[in-house]
Each structure stands twice: as C-alpha cells, then as structure tokens.
Amino acid sequence: MQLNTILPAVGSTKKRKRIGRGQGSGHGKTATKGHKGQKARSGGSIKAGFEGGQMPMQRRLPKRGFTSINKIEFSIVKISDLNMFDSEAKVSLEEMIKAGLVSKNNMVKVLGDGELSKKLHIEAHKFSASAKGKIIAAGGSLQELSI
C-alpha cells in the first residue's frame, strides 16, 4: 500500500456543485437561483424571523419578567438533616460542607422541615421562623452570619 493509492471510502465524499459555469453544466444562466426576486439578487438573504413584512412573532408577543442582578441564591438545609451531627456539636458552614449538606461558597438557609432531636449550635446565613423555634426548643443555639 502506498499513500498515493489510498482513496476515500465509496460514498463518503461528494463533489461540490459548480454553479454559473455555462449552459452545458446544467447549472448555468440563473445559477439555480430561479428568476428575479430578492433571493436571486446578490446579497439577497432574508434575516431570521422575517415574515414578509408582517409584524414578526418576536415583536407581536409582549415582554415578560426579568432576572434580578441582586438575587441571592441559598442552599437549603432541613432541620432533620442536622440530626447526623453529635449532640452539643458546633455546626458551622465548614462542617456542613464536610458532611455534604451544602456545596462551597453558597449562602445557607436552615428550614424547619422535620424534627431536631439533639442540642446543636448552628451557624448559617438565614433561618426560617419554624427552624429557629425548633432549634431553641431542642436546647440549642443559632448564629446568623452576615450575608
């Protein structure tokens, strides 16, 4: 086998259509563009969304909503998830990350889902009202971190 004898597989390549190269080619005269009209002219392309002069769909529909640039995303931790820690433990953000409850660099909000059966000292950015009540009822304490 030699490099100059290698050919591509049958049907894997296709010759390009050479248009506007005379009548004998079968693609002469109008060069497969038909007769007249915008699409037959040079530079005659129609932009996406153009509907022939009719008011386009993206302009007919109203604008709706926005994304706030000041939105703060919180990672949610349930009270029931905190039962995995030992009693009297200090549950800081680092401890929650080690336990796999939250990912790094996230604001943490503790919600009052479930029951807390241990006395814990919990640090988080926010607490729901029910979570505060359940932590204090279990004999624990909480510390809100600055956002």
Q: What is the element layout, followed by pairings?
A:
Elements: H1 57-60, E1 74-78, E2 90-91, H2 93-99, E3 107-111, E4 121-124, E5 126-127, H3 129-137, E6 141-144
Parallel strand pairs: 1-3, 2-4, 3-5, 4-6
Q: Structural class, from secondary structure content?
A: alpha/beta
Order of helices and strands: HEEHEEEHE
Number of strands: 6
Give the CA-CA distance, first to last residue. 71 Å
CATH class of the domain at 74-144: Alpha Beta
Computed Rg: 34 Å
Unreliable stretches: none
Helix % is: 10-25%
How large is the count of helical segments? 3
The shape is elongated
CATH topology of the domain at 74-144: Ribosomal Protein L15, Chain: K, domain 2
The CATH architecture of the domain at 74-144 can be named as Ribosomal Protein L15, Chain: K, domain 2
The profile of the biggest β sheet is: 3 strands, parallel
Enumerate the strands of the largest sheet in spatial order, edge to edge or round the barrel.
Answer: 1-3-5
The proportion of strand residues reads 5-15%
Q: Average pLDDT across residues?
A: 92
Please describe what this structure looks like.
It contains three helices and six strands, in the order αββαβββαβ. It has 147 residues and is of the alpha/beta class. It has a domain at 74-144: Ribosomal Protein L15, Chain: K, domain 2, CATH 3.100.10.10. The strands form two sheets. A three-stranded parallel sheet has the order 1-3-5. It has a three-stranded parallel sheet with strand order 2-4-6. It is elongated, with a radius of gyration of 34 Å. It starts with 56 loop residues before the first helix and ends with a strand.
